[in-house]
Structure formats: C-alpha cells, structure tokens
TrEMBL record:
Annotated protein name in UniProt: Phosphotransferase
This enzyme's EC code(s): 2.7.1.-
Entry GO MF terms: ATP binding; D-glucose binding; fructokinase activity; glucokinase activity
Role of this protein: Catalyzes the phosphorylation of various hexoses to hexose 6-phosphate.
Functional pathway: Carbohydrate degradation; glycolysis; D-glyceraldehyde 3-phosphate and glycerone phosphate from D-glucose: step 1/4; Carbohydrate metabolism; hexose metabolism
Top class in the EC scheme: transferase
GO BP term (any one): intracellular glucose homeostasis
Organism: Bemisia tabaci (Sweetpotato whitefly)
Statement: the UniProt record of this protein carries the keyword Ribosomal protein: no
Highest taxon above the source species: Eukaryota
Gene Ontology CC terms, in alphabetical order: cytosol; mitochondrion
Amino acid sequence: MINYLYEMLVALGLPNFLKNLSDSFTCPARKNFDRVTIRDQCKDLILTDETLQEIMSRLRSAIETGLSKDHHDSAIVKCFITYIQDLPNGKEKGKFLALDLGGTNFRVLIIHLDENHFDMQSKIYAIPEKIMVGTGEQLFDHIAQCLADFMKEQDVHTEKLPLGFTFSFPLRQVGLTKGLLERWTKGFNCSGVVGLDVVQLLKDALARRNDVQIEVCAILNDTTGTLMSCAWKNPNCKIGIIVGTGSNACYVEKVENAELFDGDKSKPYVIINTEWGAFGDDGALDLILTEYDRTIDSESINPGKQLFEKMISGMYMGELARLALVKFTKEKHMFHGQGSEQLFTKGSFLTKYVSEIESDPPGSFDNCRQILEKLGLGHATEQDCINVRYICECVSRRAAHLVSAGAATLINKMEVNSVTVGVDGSVYRFHPHFHSLMIEKIAALIDTSKYKFDLMLSEDGSGRGAALVAAVACRER
C-alpha cells in the first residue's frame, strides 16, 4: 500500500512534498531499494572461488616464468633470487644493526641477540616528500645522517657493527650484499638510483660522512625479513607476505627450480622474492579490474605498473572505497545525492577508515558516523552508514581474497605438508577481519587433506628480520 501511494504521488508531480517525504520516510521498502542498488553496484568487487582459481593459475604461470632462465627477462612477476639459503636456528648471538627502508618513514635499529632472546632499540625517521622525489644522493645522504645520529645516541659510533638492510622496493639481487633497483614504488621516484646497487649507494653516503663504521652483511626486502623473523620462532615458516603500504611475498624454493641461481648449489633451498605486486601488468588481471582500479592506476605515479598491489595494499584501499562512494553519491544512491568537498577530494578517505568502520559492532555505526562527519557528510542516514560499511567490506574482502589466492598458489607450488605463512603489514595487522578472511579463503583454495597451513603475525619482520639475516650471514662465515 505504501509503495502504491508513493507511486501515485510521483504521478501527480508533487516534487517538494515528495522530497520532504523521502527525506523522512524510513519504510523498509524504500531502504531495501537503496541497499539492493548498492549491493548490485558492488558485484564487480566480489570474486568467486572459480575466479580466484583462475587468478591462481595465472599467477603460478607468472611465477614459473620468473624462475625461468630463458624467460626471466620478459617476466612480469620477477621472482628475484635473494641468495639467502639458511634460516635462523635460534642460536644466533651478537650485536647487529638493521636499517628498514620501505615507505614514507624508515627505521634504524640495534638488536642484541642471544639464544632465543633479543633486546632491541629503534628510532623512526621521516623522509620528506621532496627527498622521496629528489635525487638518489639526497636520499642516501639523509639515511646516512640518521644512521650516524642513531649510533651516536646508542653510544656505538666507535664500533664496527654488521648491518642488515631492508630495502622494500623491487630489487634484482646479484649477491647477498648487492642489489640493483628495478623501479621505484610507493610514491618514491628518486633520480639516479634505478639500475644501480643500493648497497653501494649507502656505502658511498656513509663514506662521505666518514664518522661511523658499518659492515653491510645483507640486503633484503620486508617479505624476506618477515619470513626470517617468524622462522626464528617457528621453523615451519617458509612463506613471508606483506600487506601494508604495498604488497609482496617471498617463499622457500628448491635450488633446482631457481634457474638463475648461481650461488651455493650444495644447499637445497633459496628464498625467492616474487615481487608479486606487478602481477597483472601484462593484462592477466583485466578480467577482474573495475572502473575504480582503472582510475587508481591512471592517476598514480606509475600507470600500468603494480596492478595486483593496487588492488590489495593500504596505499590504495581507502581511495578505492572513496571512488565507489563518489560514484554512488553522484548517482543519488547515497547521501541524497549530496556529497561534500572532502568526499570529492582525492585521498581524503584514509585506508584506516576502512578498518575503523568495519570495527563497529553489528548494528552500531559510531566510528562510521564520526568519519562521515569529518568528511562533511553529517547528513548521512542509517542506511547510508549500512551502505558505507558494505562498500568497505567489499573492498577489504577482495584484497584479503586476492592475497589468499597468492598464498594458496605458493602453498600448492611448494608441496610441503605443513607450512607456516608469516604475515606483516599495517592492513593485515590492523584490519579487524583480514586474518580470519585469509584463513577461510586459503582453506577453500588448497587441498586441506594434503596441505596444512597456519598464519603467523610477524614480530617486526623488517627490523628484527634484517638483523637476523645479518646474524645468519655472520654465523655462516
């Protein structure tokens, strides 16, 4: 009856009355119409298991291409050799430095290792935006200055200490202490670095200062650090995954499958840095790309690159949700079609908002309303809050399912009966449901009668892991 009256009023052409009526009407039929519309509009963000299996097949093929000597140069997923062949055994001892560069901040750490015990001191330093897009010399001079300042603060500036260098950008390693930058990601674009050895650039910057003595024992990325950090406590850990500002994975591969490996082949395994963030740069993900993904990509500083990462990581998740909100607002499906300057501003919907909104208990929208107020959307209805949460869930679930497909691909490839997956990164760490979403989806994508797995949160993989790589390198001398 209510719907019939509503349609009659439309036919009579009473726009002002109808506007007041629609603003105050909360009948279930009207609310369900809005919700069905949003759910229907978000279908392209939902991936079936069949689609994920197809993604896994394509990723497996891309990884095998990256491992191949004949096809590596044309590979999208590069599968770089790390030259790390030994995992921690819990008996590492000594004092080690770690340098962790992988985002807008970097850390310097000093770690004292004893059997199954460690003591750590660290400090975070900012990288100004002008340095992120300046010259390579400016970047490494800034890092060297902060490193020297930290050593003086810790009163170790007169000692010569081993250092593990976490460098979380695509790197082609040609040895344990030599790595050539393939390309910048995560908003960096320093000139004069691509194609060069970043360890040597750090050494050169330290030499220009000549006030501290450091021996760089190993270079690695944060996925390798995550694996090493977890393996120190759990020897079953054979995969490391990052879901933070960016996304990447590494895993333990048989030396015989790593055709480009030219190290010690008497040891059976070597860690492979997949650089899976670039998966899809050749069109392999076109079947699931949405208009939001294409906008994110076209407006990024690296169009056409790192497409898998752009669908997953914290650098883009909030913006993906914002683009959907903007679309539905302009189509008058949300907020009565009334947006705000903040909502229409690129980057205004932070990734942490996704986690905070999904942290609201069912039926409660306290966090959601606070965030919408910040965005100038205080006029949001309860149905708007329901829709905002649903959009956030679609974006974060898709990310979790894509990461799960990647993890399942590696588990299937390794064919190890029981494997622990070490995971780190702000999205995995702070999103309220990411862990459980991954557990559920990985189990659905592998044969659990053959393979057992668990997920382990890394305790400071990029910091402690870097020191552990240096410690293992010293142990093996």
